[in-house]
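Posting here for the record, re: zinc ion.
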Amino acid sequence: MRQFDLVVRGGTLATAAEVFEADIGVRDGRIAAIGLDLPAGTEEVSAKGMIVTPGGLDPHCHIEELSADGGVHEESFASGSAAALAGGTTAFICFLPQWKGHSLAASAPGYERRALQSRADYSFHQIITDPTPEVLEREVPALAARGVQSLKVFLTYDPLRLTDAEFLRVLATAKRLGLMVTVHCENFDAIGWRIEALLAAGQTDPIAHAWARPPVVEREATYRAIALAELVEQPIQVFHVSCEAAAAEIARAQARGVKVWGETCPQYLTLSHADLLKPDFEGAKFVCSPALREAGENERVWKRIQDGTLGVVSSDHCGFSFATAKRAPGAGGYGQGGATARADGTPAFNAIPNGVPGIETRLPVLFSEGVSKGRIDLPTFVRLSSANAASLFGLGGRKGTLAPGADADLVLWDPDAERTIHNGALHHAIDYTPWEGFAVKGWPSITIRRGEVAVRDGEVLAAPGSGRFLARG
Ligand code: URP
Ligand code: ZN
Ligand code: ZN
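Prediction output follows.
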C-alpha cells in the first residue's frame, strides 16, 4: 500500500507566512507530509508552474437564505457550493436566519437540511434579529455547543436591525459564551431620513441607493459598534467595510488595543458609482450595502488591506437575479423604506434587493487585482482569502493552512492564465455577474477539497452532499 492517497507534486506553495517549493502528500483527506521528492501517491497531480494555496474560506455569504416574507435567495447549496469550488473556495460560512418575532428554532425551518446538499464544507453564523431571553439564554448556548460559534447582527435594514440596547445584550451573551460577533454597520435612521428626502425629490434610480447611504452613515455605525463592543469587552468583526472613513475607525480602535477586525469584499475594491449609473436599470445589478463608493475609494480600501486594518476579503455573495430585482421589490428582507414601484414597474432604489453574487469570482478577482497587479504578495493573499478567517472563526489549524494535520484543501493557481469573466461560464444560479467582461490574470485550475479533486479546468466533480458541516470551537 502506498504511503499517500494523493501527491501534489512540484508546486510553489504559498502559506500565510512564506512561499517555497515542495510536494504535498495527502492521506485520509488531510495533509500528511510536505517536502521535496515525496514518494509516489496512489494519485498524482502535477503542480509544475502552479502556485498552491490553501483552499479559500469565504466567511460571509448568503446561500438559500429564507426570509419571513417568503423571499428566498435563489442560490441553492448545490449551485452556490459548485460556484465556490470552481472559484477556489473549499469552505464557507453562511447564515442561519432568525425571523423577527420567532425563536431561532422556528425561523427558516429546514435550513440545515438544505445545507446538507453542499459540495463544499460549510458552517453557520447565527443571525440575531430578536434577542429575547429565551434566545440568548437557551437557544444560543445550545447552538454554540453544536459548533455554531459566531453571531451576526445588523444595525440597519427593516426588520432585521437591532437597537443599541439589543446589540449590547447580544454582545454580553457572546462574551459569556466566548463567541465572535459580526456586525453590519450602517445607521438605520440616517438612511431612512435620506431615503425620504430622495423619494420626495423624485429620485428613484439605482444610483440614489448610494446617495442614501453615504460613507458617514457607515462610519457612524462602525464607530458605535466598536464603542459598544469596547464597553462590553467583546471582540467583533466588522463586515463589508466599503470606505476609508469606516476603515479609519477600525484602525483607531485597533491602535488602542480593542479587539476589532475588519472585512471587505471585491466589490469595494473594484466597482464604483459608475456601475450604479449604468442605463436601462442595469445599475440595479450593483446595489449592495454598504453602497459602492465614488471613483478613487477602491484604492483607499486597498491601502487599508496593505496596512493590515482589513484582514479578510469575503464575497458577501447574495443570490438575487437581475430578473428578480426588476419585478420583486425588497426580496429577501435586505431593503429599507417600503416597496416603491416606478412608472415602468421596476422598483425604486430603496426596494431593489441588496447584495451582489460573487462567491466564484471572489478569489480570481482578488488574485488578479491583488497579486498579479502587485498590490499584495502571496502570503497576504492567503491571509485575506482563508487564513485570517480560519483563525477568527475557530477553524485555525484545520482550514487556511498548508501543514501536516490540516484538511487537504488546496488550490492550484495558474498565475499566467488570462481570462475574461462571463456569467455564462460561472457555476452560480444567478443570471448575471457584476464582473461581466472583467479581465483577470491568474486562475484556479484545480481545486482539491479534503484530498479529492473537486474541480478540474472548470468542471465541478464534487457531488452535492459531499461537503461537511464544520463544527467550530
Ligand atoms: O447588500 C448586501 N450586503 N446584502 C446582503 C446582506 C448583508 O448586508 O450582508
Ligand atoms: Zn451586511
Ligand atoms: Zn452579507
